[in-house]
Amino acid sequence: MRVIGGRARGRKLKRVPGDTTRPIMDRVKESLFNILAQDVPGSRWLDLFAGTGQVGIEALSRGAAEVVFVDKVRPAIQTIHSNLQATGLTAVSVVVQADAFTYLRQGNFAPFDLIYVAPPQYMGLWLEVLAIVDERPSAFLTTQGIVVVQIDPKEYQDLDLVNLVCFDQRVYGNTQLLFYELG
């Protein structure tokens, strides 16, 4: 696992001990950042269920202004801190140990340009996140903000959303990326 682009390119990243996280494959991460390329520099991200922090770290490496990493698991938080130090990106990041839903409901933050959601599989957590964001999108997203969800394709289901619209989806083997914007 490594940073594949930007100023920290080539730096190795640590994994969270155990098997509780599912890091994104490099080819999926590369495709994601090819899709988002021009939107990354200067943007502000929220990395929910951050795990190793590799997606947010990739964004910072490619010029994102700030990433807020949220995970409730202590080993994940320690891994994110370690990976940020190894890449020299600590100064432009905020690491929060909290339940993702508690963090979203507290709402003590400015809106984000991108919210990345990669929860544990097969628990429907991505559906809950989208429901919360859809209810009050201006509290979470800038006017051009997007939500990107990473799930297993078997988890996908159509949603009845009011404010968010799925404008793109891509499948890479056992990983599906869903892209939502304000409708």
Summarize the structure.
With 183 residues, this protein is α/β, with parallel strands linked by helices. Helices cover 30% and strands 27% of the residues.
- What proportion of the residues is helical, as a percent range? 25-40%
CATH-level-4 superfamily name: Vaccinia Virus protein VP39
Q: CATH top level?
A: Alpha Beta
Anisotropy-based shape: globular
CATH topology-level name: Rossmann fold
Classification by helices and strands: alpha/beta
Beta-sheet strand percentage? 25-35%
SSE order in H/E notation?
A: HEHEHEHEHHEEE
General description of the model:
- The protein is an alpha/beta fold and 183 residues long.
- The chain has one domain (26-182): Vaccinia Virus protein VP39 (Rossmann fold).
- 30% of the residues lie in helices and 27% in strands.
- The protein is built from six helices and seven strands.
- It has helices at 26-36, 54-61, 74-87, 100-106, 125-135, 137-140, and strands at residues 44-48, 66-71, 93-97, 112-117, 141-151, 164-172, 175-182.
- It has a seven-stranded mixed beta sheet with strand order 3-2-1-4-5-7-6, sandwiched between helices.
- The longest helix has 14 residues, at 74-87.
- The model has no long low-confidence stretch (mean pLDDT 94).
